[in-house]
């Protein structure tokens, strides 16, 4: 038995400590941060090997890969935080191909002076999200930038997944006549974030809808393997997603305002701020497009899943060389649902 | 949503649409100008024109606060932030208004100027309190709706002895602009822009009341119906205007009686009267110099007047030649009459100010209505 005594290392101060440049310098401090924080939280066989990469067996069939960076402000918001968001966001991007997500990587860019307590909260939230989704974080990286050169913490996650046989989901597959479905109420995430920004200071009970949608997607592709398009309407909201799909598939869309699910509180907040809920971000919703004969089955499957309870058929794809997304307003008229121009800015009066 | 959904009810809209369709006289054409951008936005967003008979035309007016702000004033504001090192606070849409040489406050911000978006004049005051070592200028714009909050902020700053706060005042007044449209040669003289009546402002009228419009209705023999910003308000106002035109009446009627009185908001008016006075003349984008159409800060509060504090010199800048904003703001042209519309002028790269705010005639038409062109073609 070895008699070599291990050097005493003072544990990281997760109460009052801060990130400093040494945490990214490749020395002992960095190794300690990785050991005491990231390895402890994300713990799995791949990370325990302490390699610079994760090695895993490749399943047969088609694989997908997606990456997503997260720079949200504030870092903590009602219903979630940047950590959970960074896991859900990439899982969802992988899942929107119909795939089953397998592994994630995570990269942190930390700003010098960032509180270790907040960092631990974020990392533990990521670990919890990844465990709940059963998609492990198998490799990662940490960099530290000088104070003033970052905004606390930026997180980039990358995910890989495998597409079940017979499933072919892509944004260019919508055809005139296809039905458009959404999995639930729109605008919750964006309003939750905005309600928390200091300059607005209004109170709402709305929570972010941040969630991993791969479980819902698995049910959907099982029930309707012919589903044509899936996309999560994140930044730019439903409006941006439908315009993207219109452009990719070379079709137009016609939706009905009265069928688009929006919570009364979200509507009220948007009303107050002069925003359109169709432009507001979601982090736990998806848009699905399917052949008309699949619509009823797909809708029933979505509604049977906890993350699709409020799913609805909101319209259909139409032939349109201009690729316009049109909406029949609840009032009885028609209008375009356009891309957002620039940033979403509130109106003046 | 209570107190909102009731005014967007599709069933009631159809009832009103039927009544309007029955009210219009065969062979008669009705042209109504909605003065406010809020109405323009509501008409476009809810597709109100789809519910009106073809013989009723809605003409967009100049009541969009950022649309009428002349280029030179934005240049002045950019200079305050870039050359004087001030923190410049302003309302959101103002950030994107095109200034001279392809600049804008948003672009100045990207280049390092300290420009901050605020939701209210009180927010600007807070920025001043939090940054005692910096000069903070509030770029104040808007009609009578946004004027009382600016007056309140100046009085607050006066009470608190806040030395680093000032206001670059660009507040304009509605009645003068309506008179200018009615006095313009296109409207009065050759009659190329015939208007049969006005849908009067909603929020502005909450402050000034309905009384100031009585003069136009009388002098120019044009009916005015003050209307709320909800789509049913607009429909009801259109019906009331049609009935006035049919009867040969030209009165001020108040559809927005749930918020507007004849006298308006006495407290708000008193605040404004305490702090502001009329300017002899002010340049409006689109309308040019309009006499007694804007406010400046009274001498008593001149230490909060950015124009005096920084010796701001105003230099008028001509609009881009291709831009028809002027004619569009006067109701003489429609967005699609402009060659730049949807080509070199889009919401991403606005050439003229009407393409900036969602209340601007061009932006509203681009965002909500441009599919109609194709149907017409």
The overall average pLDDT of chain A, rounded, is 93
Helix content of chain B: 25-40%
Order of helices and strands of chain A: HHEEEHEHEEEHHEHEHEHEEE
**CATH class term of the largest domain in chain B:** Alpha Beta
Global structural class of chain B? alpha/beta
The helix count of chain B comes to: 16
- The quaternary structure here is heterodimer
Taking the alpha carbons of the first and last residues of chain A, their distance comes to: 78 Å
Biggest interface, residues from each chain: A-B, 27 and 53 residues
Percent strand of chain B: 15-25%
- What is the CATH fold-level name of the largest domain in chain A? Phosphoribosyl-aminoimidazole Synthetase, Chain A, domain 2
The tally of domains of chain A stands at: 2
The Rg value of chain B, from CA coordinates, equals 21 Å
CATH class of the largest domain in chain A: Alpha Beta
What's the topology here?
The complex is a heterodimer of chains A (349) and B (377).
Chain A: H1 28-42, H2 45-48, E1 62-70, E2 76-77, E3 80-81, H3 82-95, E4 100-111, H4 116-133, E5 137-145, E6 153-163, E7 179-182, H5 188-196, H6 214-223, E8 229-231, H7 237-249, E9 252-256, H8 264-273, E10 287-290, H9 295-303, E11 312-318, E12 325-328, E13 334-336
Parallel strand pairs in A: 4-5, 9-12
Antiparallel strand pairs in A: 1-6, 2-3, 4-6, 7-10, 7-11, 8-10, 9-11, 12-13
Helix pairs in contact in A: 1-4, 3-4, 6-9
Chain B: H1 10-23, E1 30-36, H2 37-46, E2 56-63, H3 71-83, E3 87-90, H4 105-110, E4 115-117, H5 121-130, E5 136-142, H6 147-160, E6 165-171, H7 174-183, H8 185-188, E7 197-200, H9 203-208, H10 214-219, E8 224-226, H11 231-247, E9 252-254, H12 266-275, E10 276-278, E11 281-284, E12 288-291, E13 295-297, H13 306-309, H14 325-329, H15 361-369, H16 371-376
Parallel strand pairs in B: 1-2, 1-7, 3-4, 3-5, 5-6, 7-8, 8-9
Antiparallel strand pairs in B: 10-13, 11-12
């Amino acid at each position: 038995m070895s008699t070599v005594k291990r050097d005493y290392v003072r544990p990281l101060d997760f109460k009052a400590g801060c990130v400093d440049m040494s945490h990214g310098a490749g020395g002992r401090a960095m190794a300690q941060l990785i050991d005491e924080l990231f390895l402890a939280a994300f713990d799995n066989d791949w990370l325990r090997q302490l390699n610079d990469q994760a090695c895993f067996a490749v399943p047969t069939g088609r694989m997908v890969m997606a990456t997503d960076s997260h720079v949200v402000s504030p870092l903590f918001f009602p219903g979630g935080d940047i950590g959970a968001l960074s896991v859900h966001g990439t899982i969802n991007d992988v899942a929107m191909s119909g795939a089953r997500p397998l592994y994630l990587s995570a990269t942190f860019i930390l700003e010098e002076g960032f509180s270790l307590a907040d960092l631990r909260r974020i990392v533990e939230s990521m670990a919890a999200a990844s465990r709940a989704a059963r998609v492990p974080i198998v490799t990662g990286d940490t960099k530290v930038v000088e104070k003033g050169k970052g905004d606390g913490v930026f997180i980039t996650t990358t995910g890989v997944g495998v597409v079940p046989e017979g499933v072919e989901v892509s944004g260019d597959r919508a055809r005139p006549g296809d039905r458009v479905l959404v999995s639930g109420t729109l605008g919750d995430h964006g309003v939750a974030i905005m309600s928390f920004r200091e300059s607005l200071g209004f109170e709402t009970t709305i929570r972010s809808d941040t969630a991993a949608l791969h479980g819902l997607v698995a049910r959907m592709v099982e029930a309707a393997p012919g589903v044509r398009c899936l996309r999560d309407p994140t930044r730019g909201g439903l409006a941006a997603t439908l315009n993207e799909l219109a452009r990719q598939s070379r079709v137009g869309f016609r939706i009905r305002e009265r069928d688009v699910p929006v919570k009364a509180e979200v509507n009220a907040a948007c009303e107050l701020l002069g925003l359109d809920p169709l432009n507001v971000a979601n982090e736990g919703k998806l848009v699905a497009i399917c052949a008309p004969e699949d619509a009823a089955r797909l809708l029933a499957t979505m509604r049977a899943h906890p993350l699709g309870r409020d799913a609805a058929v909101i319209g259909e794809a139409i032939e349109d060389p201009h690729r316009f997304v049109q909406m029949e307003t609840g009032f009885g008229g028609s209008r375009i649902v356009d891309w957002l121009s620039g940033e979403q800015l509130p109106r003046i009066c | 949503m209570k107190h909102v959904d009731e005014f967007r009810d599709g069933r009631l809209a159809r009832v009103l649409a039927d009544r309007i369709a029955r009210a219009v006289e065969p062979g008669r054409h009705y042209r109504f100008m909605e003065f406010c951008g809020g109405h323009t936005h509501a008409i476009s967003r809810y597709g109100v024109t789809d519910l009106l008979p073809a013989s009723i035309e809605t003409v967009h007016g100049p009541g969009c606060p950022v649309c009428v702000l002349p280029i030179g004033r934005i240049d002045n504001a950019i200079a305050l932030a870039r050359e004087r090192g001030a923190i410049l606070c302003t309302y959101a849409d103002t950030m994107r208004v095109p200034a001279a040489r392809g600049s804008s406050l948003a672009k100045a911000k990207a280049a390092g100027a300290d420009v901050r978006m605020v939701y209210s004049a009180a927010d600007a005051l807070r920025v001043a309190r939090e940054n005692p070592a910096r000069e903070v200028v509030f770029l104040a714009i808007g009609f009578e709706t946004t004027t009382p909050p600016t007056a309140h902020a100046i009085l607050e700053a006066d009470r608190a002895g806040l030395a680093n706060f000032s206001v670059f005042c660009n507040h304009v007044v509605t009645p003068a602009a309506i008179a200018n449209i009615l006095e313009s040669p296109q409207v009065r003289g050759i009659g190329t822009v015939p208007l049969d009546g006005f849908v009067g402002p909603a929020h502005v009228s909450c402050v000034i009341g309905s009384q100031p419009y009585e003069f136009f209705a009388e002098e120019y023999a044009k009916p005015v119906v003050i209307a709320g910003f909800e789509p049913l308000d607009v429909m009801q106002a259109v019906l009331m205007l049609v009935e006035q035109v049919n009867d040969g009446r030209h009165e001020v009627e108040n559809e927005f009686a749930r918020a507007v009185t004849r006298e308006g908001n006495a407290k708000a008016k008193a605040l404004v009267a305490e702090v502001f006075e009329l300017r002899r003349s002010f340049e409006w984008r689109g309308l040019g110099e309009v006499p007694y159409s804007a406010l400046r800060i009274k001498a008593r509060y001149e230490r909060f007047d950015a124009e005096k504090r920084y010796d701001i010199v105003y230099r008028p800048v001509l609009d881009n030649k291709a831009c028809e904003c002027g004619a569009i703001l006067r109701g003489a042209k429609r967005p699609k009459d402009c060659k730049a519309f949807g080509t070199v002028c889009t919401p991403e790269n606005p050439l003229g100010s009407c393409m900036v705010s969602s209340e601007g005639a061009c932006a509203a038409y681009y965002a909500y209505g441009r599919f109609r062109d194709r149907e017409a073609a």
